[in-house]
Design a protein that fits this description.
By secondary structure, the chain is an alpha+beta fold. Helices cover 42% and strands 12% of the residues. Strand 3 and strand 4 form a beta hairpin. Helix 5 packs antiparallel against helix 13, helix 12 crosses helix 13 and helix 14 crosses helix 15.
Length: 314
């Protein structure tokens, strides 16, 4: 990693195997214009709002050596470095996942070192998942960008000068007025969920200490968080291997085509994946990595145009 224009703290993680950083962290990126995620200088960069404050984390893989070199800036830098092994799937255990289906076996062979990340940042994951509830990806990512840029702060270290920003802390996000959420193209249902989550961030973080079923129940006790949102949060913040996104608009068709040759509905998907417990999310992600999806016939779902911010640039 080249020299940078400020002084980070550094660490090296040596799992003894190649670590495909971009593949592992890909689900954390909220669209191509995500101000919290970037790739430059041969590294993947993340701007984080950690429990200890804002941080920027740069991760550069050294596959031949089986190492990942990490640099971090900001008040949350030490926290971010301590989380690197978890972030890159160090806790993920694929033991017991033996895909007998030819498609899954082939895809798993193509990604032998992929692991499920665990960010340890429940509020971050919940904000992102809530913004994606029942809207197009474009609309969700617009809301994310506007929230981060308007209410977040410039990322610590050199990333800030390159346009990266950190998600606002819970106390700031929770105080955003209702009309400002509308200007960010976020409807009252979704914004209310985020505001409630901001008031319960300590309890949300405690779900990291729970097993998959208990964490799911705790997350779903928050009004506005259902099965799909809980799964999306747990995939990223908790690293849960069984947190499949049932209820997703596209997922049943994609997995159905990959495993049966035809789209399935949500109930059929649940039946199809039952044999893969406790690795149902592992199946989901392998299908996503394969690029298999239902062919599009006709126009995509149009973004909503009735919100005040829907005609403004992102």
């Amino acid at each position: 990693m080249p020299a940078l224009d400020s002084s980070p703290i550094e660490s090296v993680w040596r799992p003894g195997r190649p670590v495909p950083v971009g593949t592992i962290l890909g689900p954390l990126r909220r669209g191509s214009g995500d101000p919290t995620y970037a790739g430059f200088d041969g590294a993947v960069w993340r701007a984080l709002q950690t429990p200890c404050g804002a941080a920027t984390l740069a991760l550069a893989a050294r596959p031949a050596a089986g190492e990942v070199h990490a640099q971090a800036w900001g008040s949350g830098a030490e926290w971010a470095l301590a989380q690197v092994p978890d972030l890159l799937g160090g806790r993920d255990d694929p033991t017991g996942f033996t895909p007998t289906h030819a498609f899954l076996a082939r895809t798993a062979r193509l990604h032998p070192h992929w692991r499920i990340p665990r960010t340890g940042l429940v509020f971050e994951a919940l904000v992102a998942a809530t913004l994606e509830q029942k809207v197009t990806g474009r609309e969700a990512w617009t809301g994310w960008r506007r929230l981060v840029r308007r209410y977040g702060s410039a990322a610590p270290g050199p990333a800030g000068a390159r346009g990266m920003h950190v998600l606002p802390p819970p106390q700031v996000a929770g105080a955003v007025p209702s009309w400002e959420w509308l200007a960010m193209q976020v409807d009252p249902t979704r914004s209310a969920t985020i505001v409630r989550a901001a008031a319960r961030v300590t309890a949300l973080q405690r779900t990291l200490e729970l097993g998959e079923a208990a964490a799911d129940r705790a997350l779903r006790s928050l009004p506005g968080v259902g099965a799909w949102t809980s799964a999306e949060v747990r995939q990223r913040a908790h690293g849960h291997s069984d947190a499949v996104s049932l209820g997703d608009y596209h997922l049943p068709a994609s997995i159905g085509i990959a495993l049966t040759g035809a789209p399935v509905d949500d109930g059929e998907l649940a039946d199809l994946l039952e044999r893969y417990r406790p690795h149902r999310y592992r199946v989901q992600r392998l299908v996503e990595l394969s690029g298999v999806h239902k062919p599009r016939h006709g126009p995509r779902m149009a973004p909503r145009r009735h919100l005040p911010g829907s005609r403004l640039p992102a």
